[in-house]
Amino acid sequence: MKIKALKGFKDIVPGEVLLWQYLERVARDVFDRFHFREIRLPILEETELFARSIGEATDIVEKEMYTFVDKQVTMRPEATASMVRAYIEHGLYVEKPVQRLFTIGPMFRHERPQKGRLRQFHQMDVEVLGSENPRVDVELIAMGAMLLDELGMQVSLELNSLGCPACRPGYRAELISYIDKRHDLLCSDCKRRSTTNPLRVLDCKVPSCREQIVDAPSILEYLCDQCKDHFGKVQAGLEQLGVPYRLNKFMVRGLDYYCRTTFEFITADLGSQAAVAAGGRYDGLVEILGGPKNSPGIGFAIGMERLVLLLQQQQAVIPEDEVDLYIAGIGEQGSRKGFELANAMRARKFSVAMDHEGRSLKSQMKQANKAGARFVFIIGDAELESGKGILRNMLGNEEQQEVLLSAAALADALPESLVS
Ligand code: ATP
Ligand code: MG
């Protein structure tokens, strides 16, 4: 009986890993340009961390978390809560008043697996802690836009403000009275949400609920003066930097900790898995988790599976497998010499492949091509006799030269640009 991976859990096989590495490389480069530093966080946290930050009446906490019931621990469904926990635990605000952090890794949510929706999925998560300046919002959004643009993604940016504890309750009351009048026409989830988390009704995906909310009041009309001013500056900043966006008054985000600026980068190419990245401001979260008062924060998470799907759909030029040198040893003595040279060349920082199965030269040349070898070094009986192997340049015109059977000579004969 074969044992398979769990439903919604997926291996990323070597051919596909190249895409993931490419994605990470581009992202790390962009994060670095914006002066973000990496932090690595644990996968298992106390359940309470997520219940308190994400909120009890959210899809994630209500039904999507992998929780060990006997231990009160949960596999992280997202990274922001852990990031903020670590920020508080290590007093990172003392070291630097404004922290710019990113982390990359797997998240776990028990949802119905579909294309672009898994139970173990991966996010690149970016957060700025310690500033409520709207420029930080703009800079962060601009960074997301720059990254997606450098990856060649066709996405649009949707923007909203969720107000703050001063102005949201007024809006919430208006929304509840609007929803109450349509209560019978809503799906069962929304009927329940209408009292526990009425804002969530606004982003219900059920078509009949969508019909009911088209004329719902907009939070943007209820913002207090400070929130209005903040949001105005975010919009002006995006215009200044030339980052196009569209206001979406129904974008509420499914997590309780959000306030003020919220945004999503949306694609039209992944069906209902439209959001490739999403985030927003969470000015009260640090305090809720026991950290200092008045510690604002903002961040977003990029869904890596969805980006990989888009890269595949675009047939983006994917970096191929490659190796600097393939050593083709022919016969027992030839491969014995090749074996030793391979190790010595690897110590000299060249990537080297070779065959240990005693295959023919022809079959080894095929393997060298498959491995994307730039050079092949051939060692047969004649070469052992003369003390010189044949180095073939696989790029361009396949020119050949004789090279002494020593790592030093071989390294000299290879272009310096190969040394990693
Ligand atoms: P969705 O509305 O698609 O469920 P979400 O609002 O739950 O997304 P967030 O919690 O904001 O998503 O996570 C940020 C990003 O992580 C999403 O925009 C998406 O790209 C990705 N993501 C979230 N859940 C999954 C999942 N189960 N599988 C793959 N990617 C996911
Ligand atoms: Mg979700």
What report would you give on this structure?
- The longest helix has 20 residues, at about 15-35.
- Helix 1 (about 15-35) packs antiparallel against helix 6 and helix 6 runs parallel beside helix 10.
- The radius of gyration is 28 Å and the shape is elongated.
- The protein folds into 2 domains: about 15-165 and about 225-315, 2-Layer Sandwich (BirA Bifunctional Protein, domain 2); about 325-415, Anticodon-binding domain (Rossmann fold).
- With about 425 residues, it is an alpha+beta fold.
- The protein contains 16 helices and 16 strands.
- The strands form 3 sheets. It has an 8-stranded mixed beta sheet with strand order 1-5-6-11-10-9-7-8, with helices on both faces. A 5-stranded mixed beta sheet has the order 13-12-14-15-16, sandwiched between helices.
- Magnesium ion binds near residues 59 and 254.
Task: Throw out a few tags for this protein.
binds magnesium ion; elongated; binds adenosine-5'-triphosphate; 420 residues; five-stranded mixed β-sheet; Rossmann fold; 21% strand; BirA Bifunctional Protein, domain 2; 16 helices; alpha+beta
Helix/strand/pairing class, anyone?
A: alpha+beta
Number of domains: 2
Q: Could you give the distance between the termini?
A: 44 Å
Oligomer: single chain
Shape category: elongated
Q: Strand portion, in percent?
A: 15-25%
Named CATH topology of the largest domain: BirA Bifunctional Protein, domain 2
Helix content: 25-40%
Query: Which stretches are poorly predicted, pLDDT < 50 over at least 5 residues?
Result: none
Contiguous helical run count: 16
Biggest β-sheet strands, sense, barrel: 8 strands, mixed
Number of strands: 16
Question: Mind telling me which CATH architecture of the largest domain this is?
Answer: 2-Layer Sandwich
Going across the major beta sheet, what is the strand order?
1-5-6-11-10-9-7-8
What's the CATH first level of the largest domain? Answer: Alpha Beta
Q: Can you identify the CATH superfamily of the largest domain?
A: Bira Bifunctional Protein, Domain 2
Mean pLDDT: 94
Radius of gyration: 28 Å
